[in-house]
Write a structure and sequence with these properties.
By secondary structure, this protein is of the alpha/beta class. Helix content is about 35%, strand content about 20%. The structure holds fructose -6-phosphate.
């Protein structure tokens, strides 16, 4: 989704802004722009539809734009189509104010009418231009950009991260945040703002996260902060501890492939740091045994792939804890008047920690008194900060829009949480505990073994890449895994794909199976392998071309019926989806590669979904 970067210092700003925007490209965008204030106090706005390269070529990599203070933006269209005019930054009619904005201003129509009544004219269809003109309006009245911003923030409703430049105030720019991520980066003789630390990590690891309602005045030698009451405040500094190379491709053709390959290491980091003497150990968890015993229901709330982790979690947690677990789409949860109370544990899962629907669901559950435990990848993100407890997945930065290593680490962490709770509740026997622990310790190595040989998967991808419709079928954990396999395929290859609980096929969907329809049959859940086989035979009888995924111990049996079989190592049932999903990720990747798709930045998608 939209990205923001801002810089003030002694170096030329435009190349730094372009570089920062390039590092935000992975978030998904359709146009890009920068505004730089020249020595003559003129705001130079350069923007263009399409890839950042187009903009960069127009301004010679930024060299042709002079000035040492500027703001930049990559836009993912919400109000108005993607074009040069709607691209950010927006410039006020008098040329004094330039603004970049992430989020949505909900009352922009009313504000635009107000400004029109005052004689203001609008060039774009965006809500952001309304904010820009409103700042200009108040600036005319009071002569201080900060005061004008305060007045505007009192009037606007909705979500925003804002970067604001004023032509008359070359010594600083202003940033403000509500319900959209924004952070400050501290450099030597320079400072930054960014919607995502990736944009500035090359320059600094010393950051402060802005909270809702806060405003920052960013100058070259310092940053002043104000809270929502417009009072000066001081902010804590945080150090980013991951490396720049973690956000670079490192020789791989795509981030997605790199991130698939990083999964064993990401699992080691996430899981092994929380094991002591063969026991799961959550150092910072605030909830204690009494609270865990008192939980009457667990809700898992998330979107997309993180939701799919929750679907696996429902099966595994109910099995381990014998407590009801409901998995909810965050976008539905917030509007369904949920039956959450103080004895509900709400587990929120999010890679980015910024997904707006998930954030809103979290707040709803919190207001109802639930304890919020989040599983998040991005340290210091909004969801992490608003949760009662946070367990970080140590997957490192995930750049490809399609998640892989974050999914895998979320899955492992959720299972570990189940094991930890199950031990406290006495619902997991010590024998079972030891068996799960043993398999957890072997999981990364088993994954590595699978990733060493991807030839079979490439071969199957070359057989099937030109299909236009695919069904993933499976039962129980295989169904949960199929949801993720299907999403991976459709989002990056644009092939229509659906995941079905196999038993449901005969209630309608089987009518879509005809000669040559590709069915990916998942049979890794041992307890229901025979039933999975029956469903394979059922679809084959209707002409389906079946690609099966099963465990090594069931592969021979599967091969009696299906020609194309992928075998994954056996592990404990709760971890089987962690291994089973790997060939599905790779299959999606190689199919998309053969179809010539933009794998890391699929059309219409964004990495961090900060709008509703
Ligand atoms: C799919 C994918 C998305 C995200 C979803 C939630 O590959 O990445 O479906 O899982 O947008 O995002 P987070 O986990 O950041 O809340």
């Amino acid at each position: 989704m939209c990205g923001i970067v801002g810089f003030i210092g002694t170096e030329q700003a435009a190349p730094i802004l372009l570089d920062g925007l390039q590092r935000l490209e992975y978030r998904g965008y359709d146009s890009a722009g920068i505004a730089v204030l020249s020595g003559e106090r003129e705001l130079q706005v350069k923007k263009s539809k399409g890839r950042l390269k187009v903009l960069s070529d127009i301004i010679n990599g930024g060299k042709s734009v002079e000035g040492t203070i500027g703001i930049g933006h990559t836009r993912w269209a919400t109000h108005g189509e993607p074009n040069d005019i709607n691209a950010h930054p927006h410039l006020s009619g008098n040329g004094k104010i330039a603004v970049v904005h992430n989020g949505i201003i909900e009352n922009y129509v009313e504000l635009r009418d107000f400004l029109r009544s005052k004689g203001y004219e609008f060039r774009s269809e965006t809500d952001t231009e309304v904010v820009t003109q409103l700042i200009a309006y108040y600036y005319e009245e009071c002569g201080s950009c900060l005061e004008a911003v305060f007045r505007v923030l009192r009037r606007i409703e909705g979500a925003y991260a804002l970067g604001i430049l004023c032509a008359d105030e070359p010594e600083h720019f202003i940033a403000a945040r509500k319900d959209a991520p924004l952070l400050i980066g501290y450099g030597e003789g320079c400072n930054f703002i960014a919607s995502d630390v990736t944009a500035i990590i090359k320059h600094t690891r010393d950051v402060s996260y802005m909270e809702d309602g806060e405003v920052a005045v960013v100058s070259k030698d310092g940053v002043e902060f104000y809270n929502s009451l417009e009072q000066p405040i001081t902010k804590e500094h945080h150090t980013i501890d991951w490396d720049v190379s973690a956000a670079e491709k490192g020789g791989y053709a795509h981030f997605m492939l790199k991130e698939i390959m990083e999964q064993p290491e990401a699992i080691r980091k996430t899981a092994f740091s929380r094991i002591k003497d063969n026991r799961v150990f959550f150092e910072d968890l605030k909830i204690d045994a009494d609270y865990i015993s008192s939980i009457n229901k667990i809700y898992i709330v998330a979107c997309g792939s993180s939701y799919h982790v929750g679907v696996v979690g429902k099966y595994n947690l109910e099995r381990m804890l014998r407590k009801p677990v409901e998995v909810c789409l965050a976008s539905e949860f917030r509007y369904c008047d949920p039956l959450v109370d103080p004895r509900s544990l709400v587990i929120v899962i999010s890679q980015s920690g910024e997904t707006l629907d998930t954030m809103a669901a979290l707040r709803e559950a919190k207001a109802l008194g639930a304890h919020i435990l989040s599983i998040v990848n991005v340290v210091g993100s909004s969801i992490a900060r608003e949760s009662d407890d946070v367990l970080y997945t140590w997957a490192g930065p995930e750049i490809a829009v399609a998640t892989t290593k974050a999914y895998s680490t979320q899955l492992v962490l959720l299972n570990m949480l189940g094991l930890y709770f199950g031990d406290i509740l006495g619902t997991v026997s010590q024998e079972e505990y030891a068996c799960i622990m043993n398999e957890l310790l072997r999981l990364p190595a088993k994954m590595e073994q699978m990733l060493e040989n991807t030839e079979d998967i490439k071969h199957f991808a070359s057989n099937y890449f030109n299909h236009d419709s695919v069904f993933f079928i499976g039962r129980n954990l295989d169904y949960a895994m199929g949801l993720e396999g299907s999403l991976k395929l459709k989002e990056i290859s644009y092939i229509h794909s659906e995941a079905y609980a196999s038993g449901e096929l005969k209630h309608g969907t089987i009518s879509l199976i005809e000669d040559g329809t590709l069915v990916v049959a998942l049979g890794t859940y041992s307890a229901l392998f025979d039933k999975a086989m029956s469903n394979v035979v059922e679809v084959q009888a209707r002409g389906a071309d079946v690609l099966a995924v099963t465990t090594e111990s069931h592969a021979a049996e599967m091969r009696k019926t299906v020609g194309n079989v992928i075998a994954v190592p056996n592990t404990h049932t709760i971890f089987q989806p962690s291994l089973g999903v790997v060939p599905l990720q790779l299959f999606a990747y190689y199919v998309a590669l053969l179809r010539g798709c933009d794998i890391d930045k699929p059309r219409n998608l964004a990495k961090s979904v900060t709008v509703e």
